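agent> call fold_tool(seq_1)
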Amino acid sequence: MTTYIQTKCHCGLNSFKVAFKTSELPLSTAACHCNSCRHTTGQMLVIDVPIQGVPLSSTAEGDVAASLEGLTAYKSSKDMTRYFCTKCSAYFFFHNGVHDVWAVFSGVLEKVDEVLSVSHHIWVEDTLDGGIADHYRTVNDVVLPRYAQRATSGTLPLGWKAKEFANAETHPLHCHCKAISLALTRATEIKDPKSEYWLVPGKEGAPMRFMAAHCFCSDCRLSSGSQIQSWVIVPRVNVTDASTSASVDPENAAARPKGLKQYESSPGKRREFCGTCGATVFWWREGVSHLDLSAGLFDQEAGGARAEKWLVWYDRIIHPKDAISPATLAALTEGVKAEKAEEV
């Protein structure tokens, strides 16, 4: 027996039907933290699940292979091709050319917990600091193994770090293809503590840091293909184009990084992504002096995937009522609170 699940993106340009063998649901799957997954999407992790056959037309009767003309293909390696919405950037599919297997991103599924269950983390070693695996610790009270590489490799303990990182003056960010390469500079003053709550003073002479948080809103999920969109709130003036060293101004065509594509997800709110590899880069509002950077862009070599020399992770989830997976929401809610308690 076959179960069919509908998928869609935010802009509506793409919708598909994907098939699963009913008796195998929910499928056990991994949360992947590899550098390729993080930097091609701009997300802190990728959760996907293999489908039966190929993506199917969402409107045709029966199993009719879908047209992928509304998707942009990006070949992230010799054997792996990734597909994202050309208009709104939502990631839909992987295709493994060696085994001819398709997988769907969990954020575009109309149902998640009925289809998959995250059972372990893979490629945690790539993060250099555990990444979001430190926030995603358990599912239904079962501790998730944290594999260094594939699920056949050794595991890494909670709190693991490959090395200690220095307090640098700038921090590099980039997408996978590096068409978008940015640098973040330090904020040095808080002019209005009430409105600039996202600037966090350093302790004992340490530099100021920026607030980061995990968002579960439907707009973020359907325009990224990820259940979890992790944002970092920063003043525009502190985001520079690595190729020019000039501050990024998304409202000024001359100060926009080349390679950015824009999608207006609601009036006055614009999401920017790499037109080549599909990575979410940032979103911004007209007339506001700050923007939200996608946390998966942070160069792990400079500070680990969580970039804790630069970021303070908020201990609450943003827009929890929009979560499509109660299991994922519960895991992150518990994880960020646990990490915050451990800091005390």
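agent> call fold_tool(seq_2)
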Amino acid sequence: MTKFLSLLLFFSSLFLFSQKKWKVNFYNEKVGNEISIFADNQEEMPMSAKFTFTTLDNLKSTAGKEVTVVIPANTNQFPITTLSPINPYQKNEFNYTSMVNFGDVTQENYDKDYEYSLPFEKGKTHLVYQGYNGKLSHQNIDALDFNLKTGDSVFAARDGKVVETQDQHNTNCANISCAKFNNKIVIMHFDGSFADYAHLKQKGVVVKIGDEVRKGQLIGFSGNTGFSNGPHLHFAVFLNRIDGKRKYIPTKFKTSTNNATFLEEGKSYTKTED
């Protein structure tokens, strides 16, 4: 198996969960009778990959026939597995399929006690018009929709690093097919979870990938893009899974009562502090 062929096999499955082309490269190198498979990850966050060998003739893998790995951020030549011939005098062949998603898909633990800041301007009051497991578009999803207007300021609810941004779109519709037009900011927190701020206005992102942001920092402006039937801010915290699904995390927020609370659909909340 040549390096070129292994790249073709990887790219055939790279875009399974995202239309974005992640800066991750897989390749193999042969040393003596052994073939080692490596990964380079140029993203600002860990990337996960599941490898399944569909052909493994006269070869044994140090990782077995199926393995899920987490490749650290900004890492070169991360070892995936090494293939060794069973009989060095016979022909060998291998190929594999792969699934890729961002974050550590093996992670289960996170900070359950963290108190988030409301993601809008201090002194303002906004309605949660769709809450956790909402009937409009949040079935089995722990996400919140705030009734921000187009152009309203959006602030980071927690410290973290910006790992994805999108703000070139100006299209929306009330159908899941428009989700690809979501303008958004994704921030990775220090416990490995992610926050998604979605439906931002066109050119409504004021941070860039790699920025370290603080809770209460301006990051963008609300809008009505993507899978949306009206201006609002969609906010969700999650852990990723290798199959493209998300494990959503209910989050407590500081409110005007100074108590950390889970927000409820149909209620309005005032931000009094960051």
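agent> summarizing second result for user.
The first helix runs from residue 3 to 11. The chain has two domains: 3-102, 115-266.
agent> awaiting next instruction.
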